[in-house]
Amino acid sequence: MELTVLMNKFDVEGRLVALQPFGSGNINDTYLAIYRNTFTENQVILQRVNGKVFPKPKVIMGNMHEVTRHCHAKLEADAKAGRDDRVWQMPRIVKTKSGKDFATDENGDTWRVITRIMSAHAFDVAQGPEHAMECGSALGHFHYLISDLPQGSIKNPLPGFHVTSGYLAAYDKTLSTPRAKKLLKSSMEAMRMAKFVAERRSLAVSLEKAEERGELKKRMFHGDPKVNNIMIDDVTGKGTAMIDLDTVSPGLVHMDFGDALRSICNPAGEEEANLAKVVFDENLATAFCKGYMREAGAFLTAADRAYMYDSIRLLPFELGLRFFQDYLAGDVYFKTKTPEQNLNRARVQFRLCESIESRERSIRGALKKL
Ligand code: GN1
Ligand code: MG
After folding, report:
1. Which residues is 355 bridged to in the sheet?
2. Average confidence (pLDDT) over 320-336
3. What pLDDT is stored for residue 1 in this prediction?
4. What pLDDT, on a 0 to 100 scale, did the predictor assign at position 120?
5. Which residues line the pocket of ligand 1, CB cutoff 6 A?
């Protein structure tokens, strides 16, 4: 189906004047659509939900409906009460002309339209400590927003998501395929990375074990709070919204904390080719934590705090493992433009993990002061 025909199924005021690819997500296909009438303009985001990654796109949309309904009500009540120093925002689902939350094309693919947060941008890398602090505030505030979203109202969007032991099992299975064996044999770099994984297997499950022992409890998490999913107001420079709500579900908030830090504290970004540039920036981490604690510090338990370092170390390891496994499996999950892209993404995350390990004492010290 032509994109414009698809777009026309949704109820947006004005005439469609532009429709172009947008953003840098690794999973869904995203477009910006601009509508105008004589007086004003409407900008919305059109997205195809990746059916290979999300086997049940309808579940994703049902969850998004629940999350936005819950959070919009809370945001409006807080705004009325004058609780905050800014207007926190969250995208809204734009209905189809027949009143549905999504449309389906002739291939059975699910398409949705959401509002764009205007006069705000997300960045692919941290711009400096102030930006990092605003990212922390935005994630902390988001955790506050979803903290009382009933766990039963959300269906599992992506079974196995952020279950590191499951990623290790998938990796082991891939390792035994002829394709992976060949790739490993022909590349010293890939061999080195396999060794890197092997040396960290037991540490990779530290959070899962803490949860099994009952030390850590599931709460609502975002699932994908990387820097380019955090919208910053163009005018004030303050955080204004978390976007990409597909994976909001019950999980350990540590996964969000670690994921945000692995993304924000690596100013070289996820696609850097020069590994020498990949370092964990502790100044950015301190700034992020300051913002996060201001919004979310009150509901963190002593046990939550005790596992913060582990989460900072775990998330780059886990993402590196996911990229590496996908490289060995033939790039079936993450979108790629070049054959070695997933391998390089994995190298970056593993390098970041090493950088964190070499700073363990200092990071733990800083965490204690929070
Ligand atoms: C994927 O939605 P997107 O492309 O921002 C992935 C995240 C990774 C991220 C790394 C559902 O996120 O887990 O951290 O790539 N999302 C899913 O860039 O797997
Ligand atoms: Mg995502």
Report:
1. none
2. 98
3. 79
4. 98
5. 25-27, 53, 158, 224, 226, 244, 247, 270, 319
- Per-residue pLDDT reduced to its tens digit, 232-253: 999 999 999 999 999 999 999 9
pLDDT at 210: 98
Residue 317 belongs to a domain: yes
Task: With beta carbons less than 8 A apart as the criterion, state whether 118 and 32 touch.
Answer: no
pLDDT given for residue 24 in this prediction: 86
Which CATH number goes with the domain that contains 98?
A: 3.30.200.20
Q: What contacts 80, CB < 8 A, 6 or more positions away?
A: none
Question: Alpha-carbon distance 304 to 293, whole Å?
Answer: 12
> Phi and psi dihedrals of 240, rounded to 5?
-130, -25
Determine which residue's CA is closest to atom 8 belonging to ligand 1.
Answer: 224
Distance (Å, rounded) from C-alpha 45 to C-alpha 50? Answer: 15
- Does this model's pTM top 0.85? My answer is yes
- Tell me how far the alpha carbon of residue 22 lies from the centroid of ligand 2, in angstroms: 14
Per the structure block, which two tokens stand in for 166? 């499951």
Q: Atom 14 of ligand 1 has which residue's CA nearest to it? A: 224
- Ligand 1, atom 13, lies closest to the CA of 224
pLDDT at 11 over 90: yes
Looking at the CA of residue 247, tell me the nearest atom of ligand 1.
Answer: 11
| Of residues 315, 288, 329, 82, the one with CA closest to residue 190 | 329
Residue nearest to atom 5 of ligand 1 (CA): 25
Cβ partners under 8 Å of residue 217, min gap 6: 211
Cα dihedral across residues 59, 61, 67, 69: positive or negative: negative
Ligand 1 pocket mutation pick from 22, 26, 162 by most atoms within 8 angstroms of CB: 26
* SS3 labels along 99-115: CCCCEECCCCCEEEEEE
Domain that holds residue 287: 129-368
- Hunting for tokens 């709070």 — which residue is that? 225
Tell me if 182 is assigned to some domain: yes
Distance 39 CA to ligand 1 centre (A): 38
**93 and 186 fall within a common domain:** no
